[in-house]
UniProtKB/TrEMBL annotation:
Stretches assigned to the RCK C-terminal domain: 134-219
A Pfam family hit: TrkA_N
Name the UniProt record assigns to this protein: Trk system potassium transporter TrkA
Keyword terms, alphabetized: Ion transport, Transport
Keyword Nucleotide-binding attached: no
Domain RCK N-terminal residues, every copy: 1-114
Length: 224
């Protein structure tokens, strides 16, 4: 996992994740980079520009599972996340303050765009830890969420694959609205069967249940 930005958000995320994952922070400011490096035990802190293509390649961006841009500069976050995606990062995230910017990047290469006003550290940790959620949209100014999740595995290893919509045990206040299967968009009905690699669009009235939805799309140990 690579974080662009060693401010409060990047530092706190790294602190929570460094025991479980290999974490790096790219911080432009030398003094802040030094301070963060002293505070974190296992995280590698590098002083440099996250939009530097050579630096990203040197740090193995093509083998990175998650690149998360969390500086206080919207443009820098968007640029570095787009660059990381182009260079091979599996999932890229960006914190974006301006609503107009969020709308612009939703159709682009950035997988998850989150407004800091609508996100908590816990929410960000959930997105970083689970790669099956590829897009999160805040609705009604953060009161609800629309989630796009990918179904993996089979009926034995997944809680959703091979099951009709009515059979999926969704958290309260959650509904499946549609399924994207290849180039086809399917409006979900009670008897629609979810297949492996389907992109499932869900609506959540209670955003606190995001973690439950993401657990629903995790595969069991039998999935290879």
């Amino acid at each position: 996992i690579i974080f662009a930005g060693g401010g409060n958000i990047g530092r706190r995320l790294a602190l929570r994740l460094e025991k479980e994952y290999n974490v790096k922070i790219l911080e432009r400011d030398p003094e802040r980079a030094g301070a963060v490096s002293e505070e974190l035990r296992k995280t590698i802190v590098l002083q440099g520009d996250a939009a530097d293509e050579d630096l990203l390649q040197e740090e193995g961006i093509e083998d990175t599972d998650v690149f998360c841009a969390v500086t206080n500069d919207d443009e820098a976050n968007i640029l570095s996340a787009m660059l990381a995606k182009r260079l091979g990062a599996r999932t890229v995230m960006a914190l974006i303050n301006r609503t107009s910017y969020v709308e612009l990047v939703e159709a682009g290469p950035i997988d998850v765009a989150i407004s800091p006003q609508q996100a908590t550290i816990g929410t960000l940790l959930t997105h970083v830890r689970r790669g099956d959620v590829v897009m999160v949209h805040s609705l009604r100014r953060g009161a609800a969420e629309a989630i796009e999740a990918i179904a993996h595995g089979d009926r034995h290893s997944s809680k959703v694959v091979g099951r009709r919509v009515e059979e999926v045990k969704l958290p309260r206040g959650t509904s499946i609205a549609a399924i994207v299967r290849g180039e086809e968009v399917i409006i979900a009905h009670h008897d629609t069967v979810i297949e492996s690699e389907d992109h499932v669009i869900l609506f959540l009235v209670d955003k606190r249940r995001i973690a439950e939805v993401e657990k629903l799309f995790q595969v069991g140990i039998t999935f290879l």
